[in-house]
Amino acid sequence: MAYAAYPGINGDIAFSSARGDHNVIYQVDPNVGNFGRRSSHHNAISLLTLGANDVEPFYSPDGKTLYFSRHSDHANYWVIYSVPQEAPESFANPATELSAVPGEEANNDYAPSVAPDDDTVVFNRDNSYIDTLWAPSGPSSVCTLYSPPEGLAAAAADGSASRVVFNPVDPSELVYVGGDNDLHLVTGIQFQTGSNPCNQQATVTDINLSNEVFPSGAQYAVGADANPDWSPNGQEIVFNSTRGGGNTLFIMDMTTNPPTAYPIWPSSAAARRTISTEPVFSPSGNEIAFVEANRGLQIYDEMRVSEEHGQWLANGPATALCKQPWNAASFDSAPDWQPIPQTPPAVLPEFPYPAVLPGAALLAFGLWFALRSGRARRRVAGT
């Protein structure tokens, strides 16, 4: 799955795919022409993991680490793993097992995401608990943050509807999909520096967003919500839902009281021309990648909030991201967009400083300096 979109420059998009005989994680560069098609000039798609069944990728806020859930065939459990984004898994460099000690797996851990601190990983344990771990400490740090009264959604065998997502701007908030298939907002989470939050059941507030936004008798009142993702500014949540029939993408505006939501793709839930799921914001905040039934990964491109209506509007159809898969029977799923943090431009010393000048400029500076020195000597000599 994918989770909160952290702000930055749009990097690669990770996704799970059965392009071979099992699910592994790939990443694709959406900035390369032809959106992931192989050509003689480039290969925009690269392999990141080598497991028997790897799903639900999620990049760390700094874009340097990829977290995912792996099914362990020998133990028959799902476990959270990580791999460096720039050092794909190999037999010599295996992925790191994080939520269990190797060989001692005893729980199903699904759908990892990460808090803004880059080290607190939150995940669904056994469709019952919202657990966290401190990545540098691994399995020894695992603890329960919150136990939802209704549990977590178990709509898929790999927990893929059970996304738990920290607000990228305010980590005291997270959103999850409960066992009632509604979106819930948990507020009041307390972090301590250098550790992951644990055992906060009595101090947090759990709000059923779906009941707030779609009360009984209202339009889209009936349906199951799944796969929420925060916008980089923490003001919107995108998700898919069966409200209105089919699976439609919705935007929820978290700046209103109560929050408001409306369908964005298809533009009318009643139209449901396609089944659209697993939406994620781009780090830039103005694009959404998602999965469309029978078409694979898509980018809902060039979207912007309309000043007239205050809603996301499409200037055209969605753009296929991974066209012409290697295996026509493959299915790409669970995208996540890599954030590349923006760094301030380097401050260069004021001209003239020969150490920072290229060769031609350095030669020109030398001639200028020699001429200036000659004039100075002539003035001193009275010539």
Structure report:
With 383 residues, the chain is mostly beta strands. It is globular and about 55 Å long. 7% of the residues lie in helices and 35% in strands. Strand 12 and strand 13 form a beta hairpin. It has two domains: 335 residues, TolB, C-terminal domain (Neuraminidase); 35 residues, no CATH class. The protein contains two helices and 26 strands. The strands form seven sheets. It has a four-stranded antiparallel β-sheet with strand order 3-2-1-26, with no helix packed on it. It has a four-stranded antiparallel β-sheet with strand order 4-5-6-7, with no helix packed on it.
CATH architecture annotation of the largest domain: 6 Propeller
Assign the CATH superfamily of the largest domain. Answer: TolB, C-terminal domain
CATH class descriptor of the largest domain: Mainly Beta
Low-confidence stretches: 34-42, 301-310, 324-329, 351-357, 376-381
Main β-sheet description: 4 strands, antiparallel
Report the helical percentage.
Answer: under 10%
SSE class: mainly beta
The end-to-end distance, rounded to whole angstroms, is: 80 Å
In short:
By secondary structure, the chain is mostly beta strands. The protein has helices at residues 209-213, 359-381, and strands at residues 9-17, 24-28, 45-47, 54-59, 65-72, 77-84, 96-97, 109-114, 120-125, 129-134, 143-146, 164-166, 174-177, 183-187, 205-208, 225-230, 236-241, 248-253, 260-265, 276-281, 288-292, 296-300, 304-305, 312-313, 319-320, 332-340. The protein contains two helices and 26 strands.
